[in-house]
Structure prediction request, 267 residues.
Amino acid sequence: MSVMSIISCEIMQDEIVWLFSNDPEVDKIIIVENNNISEFAAKLNEQNVSYEMVPFEKLPDFLGYIETNESIVVVNILELGLHAVPKTLKSEVYHSIEEMIPFSDGILLFYGLCGNVLGKVEEDFCLEKDGCVVRILRDEERIVDDCIGAAVGGGANYLKLLKTHSKEPAFFFTPMYANSWRELLNIDKYNSDPGKALKMAKMVNDMAGYSRVAKVNTGLTYVKDVDAKIEEYANLFGYSTFEVSGNQEIFEKCYSAIKDEIKNKNM
Prediction:
């Protein structure tokens, strides 16, 4: 039995759904049961991808009953709100890695540098020390900056986009980013005065010079009404919109690479 674990931010769930929908080699998918998985599970259901949901504390026993020749993927989706405090994000990701290493042959993080707090994660959990390979999303040269950098094909492409649009800076929205912007801005935490939260966010955005929203067309359609959600954000802040191309290249390469690494390690 080989076990690959995925630790992911909620915002990259669509890419995992796409990978599972196109991977005939996985025998069993296990989702760690928590408060962050309802949307992810619903998307898997829509794509007819089979999975089992297991509380984390029962995972070791559950895995013990699986046949030895099966290929298993365990998915642990972490809360999107962790990004609000970079130190907390790092702490939670590292804690999740430590918890999953005992039953994993390899762990792939669906994260980028995220404020540069995860830049040394592969070094901190090296194979020689822990016996489990730990990898993070990267292009040919380095770890990707964030979910946008991953969705547009890596750091070089991301930098090119930022330079191209530097005269009129833009927010880049993937489908899941468009679906989650209220949570990212903590709008729902200001139920008594959401207008105040939006006003504060607009003030910060204006100070940074933002005036547009770029839709990153990833080709994935698991989020409904993406254009309407982007337009809602743009209208609230008085921004124009445009579209750029995205892809699953980084996700596919990193996913395939760690699968091969685990396979070779177990030979």
About this structure: The chain has two domains: 2-146+248-265, 154-245. The two ends are 12 Å apart (CA to CA). Residues 154-245 form one domain.
